[in-house]
């Protein structure tokens, strides 16, 4: 269980996290979704006591992280890949962390096996790929068999097999009743992994709730209909609160009716249908619509060679 | 709804798996010996010091009578060797702490020990103890190897003499303490190159200038130089007296008083480093 109240972090002039409150419940995978620079990592670092909140509080399993007497068995965290001395072997890195809590070498070897690092465990971490670094970070997070897991972008740099492994692992751990808090900017991954979502944009929480609820609330479902009598059908289903658009001849997109209603209306009028498909909003669309005003680093629209929002100072340099 | 799942929540691992300072020491011990820089710097220090004492003892033996007393000839090789050895100790000490910042390891370390300062103290304990032992080994072996070389002189380092004991022990303690000093600077600056440049610049440049330039105001600064004052513990009473005589109305230091200056620096810098470690975002 993670609980944040009015959590705020300011770096100089920049408000990275602005009075956010949320709760991460045990027994499910909670996704923390947001564009780059939205405040995900800052929030996670504050949970782990690495960054001091400017204001507000956050507790893990009932108390601030720094007050736990056995932090590694309470919370396991992967905050950035390779928070590891590059000159040390993976196994020695894990042994050193385990030693702080009196965790034995057998558990070290266990997490090495769980994360598939056996073949490189005695190699120096400096030569690790991003994916191996991620696996080592996850191994470190699992060392204390913690009740709560916090993983910041765990699938970054993993191959498809690794991505699937992380997905199954976090679901398995949540199924055991643990609290799993997982950040990502990859919406598709979240859609497959998370049960619950907290969406953050520019330091604010813009949505939170079960995944489907968040998607439904921030996207429109529609019905795609293909018919040789499209124009006739469009007239038939039109009404207040209903929009019908057509992107190609014979194809309609109806918003405001269920597929059942459209099908029955067509049948009643004797209109031939070639296709009738309910289209649900995707997490991707939800994410875009939720965060479009809050994206920190917009891809600059380059026109005439100058970024649209170029600060005045840059003009002087040219 | 969630009652079922929460009741199945795993109890945290065996209650014996808890953080303690002793375990933190064990962890830092493992960390200390599992990076190459430790082995390298310690070998350079021990082998280099023994080698230098042996090598320099030969010309010193020949120089007795013309330029120096037998007493000076016996001790001068140790002074050279410890000067060199202190450079290796400084590198080891700085890397012990800045290596964690360079690689991001510090975040893993303070996640395991969220009160943070125990990480600093346990590293310091391990570093100090290891350098103390390594320096003692180097000094004892150097002493043993020098004795036959210097046997032709009619003087030798008398182990029963209180001043000789103080100087031998002083060399060992100076090395361990200059390590603590460099460690503290590393903990403050959190950057290998910056910390090395600061400590070595201070020891090799600033202190030499302060000692060497005959300008009156510097007499008030001289006694507070960490390295040269700390080394008084390994210096002869004769040279301490002559230094104090030259100091005019400056501050006079005893052997242990000089060492206390170095310890004072270490205490202040470590205190500052501990406060900043607590305060700063890791």
Polypeptide structure, described:
The complex is a heterodimer of chains A (318) and B (282). Chain A is of the alpha/beta class and 318 residues long. Chain A has two domains: 216 residues, Rossmann fold (3-Layer(aba) Sandwich); 60 residues, Alpha-Beta Plaits (2-Layer Sandwich), CATH 3.30.70. In chain A, helix 3 packs across helix 4. Chain B has one domain. Helix content of chain B is 76%, strand content 0%. The N terminus of chain B is likely disordered. Chains A and B meet through helix 2 and helix 3 of A and helix 1, helix 2, helix 4 and helix 5 of B.
Fraction in helix of chain A? 25-40%
Strand content of chain B: under 5%
> Which fold name fills CATH's third level, the topology of the largest domain in chain A?
Rossmann fold
The side-by-side strand order for the widest beta sheet of chain A comes to 5-6-7-3-8-9
Radius of gyration of chain B: 23 Å
* Strands of chain A, count: 15
Rg of chain A from C-alpha positions?
A: 25 Å
CATH superfamily annotation of the largest domain in chain A: P-loop containing nucleotide triphosphate hydrolases
How widely separated are the two ends of chain B? 39 Å
Structural class of chain B: mainly alpha
pLDDT averaged over residues of chain B: 90
Termini of chain A, distance in Å? 53 Å
Largest interface: A-B, 48 and 42 residues
Order of helices and strands of chain A: EEEHEHEHHHEHEHEEHEHEEHEHEEH
Whole-number total of structural domains of chain B:
1
Helix content of chain B: over 70%
**What coarse outline of chain A follows from CA principal-axis ratios?**
elongated
Structural class of chain A: alpha/beta
Helix count of chain A equals 12
